[in-house]
Amino acid sequence: MNKLRNLLFEPCISDVSYDFLEQSKLYSYQAKEYSERLHAVMSSEYFMRNISQHSYEMGFCEEFELLNTQELAPLAEALHQLNQLRISQRNYKSDEHISLQELSHFLQLSYSITQHYDPAMLIPPRRNIPSGGGLYPIDVYLINQHIEKLPIGIFLYDIFSFKLKLIHKFSSAEDLNQNLNKSLFTHQKNDIAYAHASAFIILGAELERSCFKYLNRGIRWAMIEAGEITQAMYLASASLELASCAIGGFDDESMARLIGYKHPSQVTLLALSLGKGI
Ligand SMILES: Cc1cc2nc3c(=O)[nH]c(=O)nc-3n(C[C@H](O)[C@H](O)[C@H](O)COP(=O)(O)O)c2cc1C
Q1: CA distance 202 to 157
Q2: Other C-beta atoms within 10 Å of 240: how many?
Q3: CA separation for the pair 252, 264 (Å, rounded)
Q4: How large is the average pLDDT for residues 116-139?
Q5: What's the rounded mean pLDDT across residues 125-134?
Q6: Which residue minimizes the CA distance to atom 18 of ligand 1?
Q7: pLDDT digits (tens, 9 = 90+) for 6-28
Q8: How many whole angstroms from 27 Cα to the centroid of ligand 1?
Q9: Is the C-alpha dihedral spanning 275, 195, 192, 204 positive or negative?
Q10: Domains, the chain, ranges and CATH?
Q11: Please, are residues 236 and 110 in contact by the beta-carbon 8 Å criterion?
């Protein structure tokens, strides 16, 4: 693979790691076989029973009862309630969509700066999620489908200015529809009501941002961070009564073209659908 030189950092990701990233990609020609495999697992009583009961088998060992807290302090109680409400919601209202205000709250709650830069300290501004070395390799993109007051298009969420920066405007809803089908297989999969989602979030990693310091190990940190942001987005959705669902099945190359990645070190780690739940 042709490795373009990162203008900021020396390329530090090994060929073997690039091979792994390549192997983990999903291409449209594999999508049918891939979804058949998922379907085979999910429709098997044997697999589902074992999956639902699996845990690490310790054998005989000493056990200690954990204490059920009777009363939680208000903030802990709020988190407890959000945890109870967190759920992957795949069906969305077709006639009601999230507003720009709700989207702004969602982004503020799920991924934002919580402590501003102190030039004397030479440390990056703190965010609501932890990051290996404070390098924050994840870029958050939004694909707007139905949010009013925003064009139908792809945006980069600029966490510093709290603005959405338009990367690409689709010429029509049909144009968006075709692109979503190529990148998210929306016509081929029926796991999520894609057409009714107000928007999609794409978590893209710039791996060099992490790997220039941590070498190949930085790939792990980027993946972990995408998980953190995903969880924060789920909790933000629960708190705002919005509905969201992680989407792991997407065509990596189509998605990369759609968003306009410039380096092979930019990879999509996860997508999420967002809408008003039914
Ligand atoms: C990495 C990841 C990928 C996922 N991909 C999909 C997906 O492609 N389609 C889908 O319907 N759900 C997807 N999910 C949601 C899971 O199916 C869901 O979290 C799991 O079934 C547990 O349900 P819950 O989130 O409602 O507790 C994904 C979740 C994660 C964390």
Answers
A1: 10
A2: 17
A3: 11
A4: 88
A5: 95
A6: 88
A7: 556 568 899 999 999 999 999 99
A8: 20
A9: negative
A10: 92-220+232-242+249-278 (3.40.109.10)
A11: yes
